């Protein structure tokens, strides 16, 4: 089956626009799981800003611009930073249009912005931020998802004599595949990254820019360990969470290999792309959808091990949340994973190696002392990334701009 045979028409048109603007990577075969986040579509309908406009504070607090992403809960994701520092300017979404109009509006905005992750929601957020800038001078505006939501804000900040920083979340390989880095990133007063290898890359390709690494946080008050776990290989509960940059071919082999080792292994795979659900259900996996925050936390707490096969990574919500729940995790040693894992807080395996991942799972399940040690150290390591502490680090960044 060709990739075009199951692609939505709007996505195909967006890729053509990307290619016309030299965004070559997103038209290549083998990139089925590209992060087309913030297209702001739900069931084919366009999502635009809703809610009241922002209130401009008088205390000089930084203004944090973000979109509330429907599939990310209140206790997950980078928007949690807004609880601990600055003043949020956040938009949600309501249905505005559907069909051809909404699709072409998305394609048109991506073409104008020359950013394949840009969306009508991104534009609405920048308009709202720009309106706030008209009433302020010398304040810092922080675009929390600069990969997706940054086009006009640096220009608006210059015109209104404000300052703007942006956090970049995508790894270097995804940035280059999408045709970046983009010129407006060099106009930021500071670029924040969530992994060190991102920072090194951006410093090399944007030599005049100020780049700082500030780790992603995790809600350690919400994601907490269960009273106890007593795993065994013959009835192990194995979890995998998320889809962005996951290696599903490796995951499939891991499921098959562990099922052969023990028929009692049970697999719960959360957040699979829709086109892969039937494939993994045929292997006996459970693939729940529409989970609440509490359901997700219960999944971490009730699992015995999490496997996280990755192609690339910066910060990873699933990894941090599993560690906060004391869940031993076997994860691919790629990219930013190494900024969040220390020896003994998770098991690192080579990327693309299903056999190594499967063997690591078996080793953990057959070695109780090793299992419990990793569970304890995982929680301790996650505590280093509490949002309260990340907020303090971000406050220092604001003070330095």
From TrEMBL:
Keyword line: Glycosyltransferase, Transferase
Highest taxon of source: Bacteria
Keyword Zinc-finger: no
Pfam (any one): Glyco_trans_1_4
SUPFAM superfamilies with a match to the protein in the record: UDP-Glycosyltransferase/glycogen phosphorylase
UniProt GO molecular function: glycosyltransferase activity
PANTHER family, A to Z: D-INOSITOL 3-PHOSPHATE GLYCOSYLTRANSFERASE, GLYCOSYLTRANSFERASE
Protein name: Putative Glycosyl transferase group 1
Source organism per UniProt: Nitrolancea hollandica Lb
């Amino acid at each position: 089956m060709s990739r075009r045979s199951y692609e939505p028409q709007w996505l195909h048109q967006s890729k053509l626009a990307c290619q016309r603007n030299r965004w070559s990577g997103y038209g290549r075969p083998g990139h089925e799981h590209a992060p087309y986040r913030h297209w702001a579509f739900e069931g084919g309908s366009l999502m635009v800003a809703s809610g009241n406009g922002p209130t401009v504070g008088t205390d000089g607090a930084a203004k944090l611009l973000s979109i509330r992403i429907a599939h990310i809960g209140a206790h997950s994701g980078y928007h949690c930073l807004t609880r601990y520092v600055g003043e949020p300017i956040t938009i949600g979404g309501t249905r505005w249009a559907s069909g051809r109009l909404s699709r072409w509006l998305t394609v048109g905005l991506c073409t104008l912005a020359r950013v394949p992750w840009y969306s009508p929601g991104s534009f609405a957020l920048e308009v709202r931020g720009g309106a706030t800038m008209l009433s302020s001078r010398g304040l810092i505006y922080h675009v929390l998802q600069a990969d997706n939501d940054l086009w006009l804000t640096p220009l608006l900040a210059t015109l209104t004599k404000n300052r703007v920083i942006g956090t970049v979340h995508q790894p270097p390989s995804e940035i280059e595949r999408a045709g970046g880095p983009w010129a407006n990133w060099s106009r930021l007063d500071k670029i924040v990254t969530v992994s060190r290898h991102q920072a090194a890359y951006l410093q090399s390709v944007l030599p005049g820019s100020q780049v700082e690494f500030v780790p992603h946080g995790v809600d350690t008050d919400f994601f907490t360990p269960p009273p106890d776990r007593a795993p065994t290989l013959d009835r192990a509960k194995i979890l995998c969470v998320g889809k962005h940059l996951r290696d599903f071919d490796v995951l499939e082999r891991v499921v098959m290999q562990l099922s052969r080792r023990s028929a009692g292994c049970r697999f719960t795979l959360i957040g699979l792309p829709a086109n892969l659900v039937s494939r993994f259900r045929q292997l006996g996996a459970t693939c729940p959808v529409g989970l609440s925050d509490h359901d997700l936390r219960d999944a971490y707490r009730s699992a015995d091990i999490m496997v996280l096969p990755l192609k690339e990574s910066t910060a990873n919500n699933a990894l941090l949340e599993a560690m906060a729940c004391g869940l031993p995790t076997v994860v691919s040693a790629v990219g930013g994973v190494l900024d969040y894992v220390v020896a003994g807080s998770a098991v690192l395996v080579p990327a693309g190696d299903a056999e190594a991942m499967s063997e690591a799972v078996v080793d953990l399940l057959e070695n109780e002392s090793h299992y419990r040690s990793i569970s304890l150290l995982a929680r301790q390591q996650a505590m280093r990334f509490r949002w309260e502490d990340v907020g303090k680090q971000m406050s220092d960044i604001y003070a330095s701009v």
